[in-house]
Design a protein that fits this description.
This protein is mostly helical. The chain has a domain of about 45 residues. The protein has four helices and no strands. Helix 2 crosses helix 3, helix 2 crosses helix 4 and helix 3 crosses helix 4. The N and C termini lie far apart (about 50 Å). The model has no long low-confidence stretch (mean pLDDT about 85).
Length: about 80
């Protein structure tokens, strides 16, 4: 937006090209305990494998770590302890 404002009204005087570089969003590491609510929600509609893959992708946490946590949560959910 600033670029458009800087060059507003200068049509015809500015020549050449402008390159705009967009960087990916910064990743933020979340605590392992914060995975629980994400996994619980995902496990309502997805298999353990799919839920772990989705949460791993969203959080940047290692897939194996998330999968192990998903297995434990799924077992709790089936036992009715949560």
């Amino acid at each position: 937006m600033e670029l458009a404002q800087d060059y507003a009204g200068q049509e015809g005087r500015i020549k050449g090209e402008i390159a705009i570089i967009i960087a990916p969003a910064e990743t933020t590491k979340i605590e392992t305990g914060d995975l629980d609510p994400l996994l619980r929600k995902a496990l309502k509609d997805l298999s353990v494998r799919e839920a772990a893959a989705a949460v791993s992708w969203m959080t940047g946490e290692k897939r194996r770590t998330v999968y192990q946590k998903a297995l434990a949560i799924k077992a709790e959910m089936e036992d009715g302890t949560s």
